[in-house]
Amino acid sequence: MKRPTKQDLQLFGAQAAVWAFILLLPPLTAYLSTHDWANTVTFEQMVWTMLRSPLILYFVNFYLLVPHLFFKQRTWLFALCNLLLMATINFGFFFMKDYMPDMPANAWIGFYTGIFVYFLLNCTVIAAALGLRHFIRTRQIRQQLQEEKAKHTEAELAWLKSQINPHFLFNTLNNISSLTQMDAEAAQDAIAQLSDLLRYAMYETDKPLVSIGGEMEFMRNYVELMKLRCNEKTSVSCTLEVTNQQIEIAPLLFISLIENAFKHGADSNTPSFIRISLREENGQIIFTCDNSNHPKTATDRSGSGIGLDNTRRRLELLYEGRYEWEQSITPEGVYHLKITLQA
Question: Does some domain include residue 150?
Answer without folding.
Answer: no
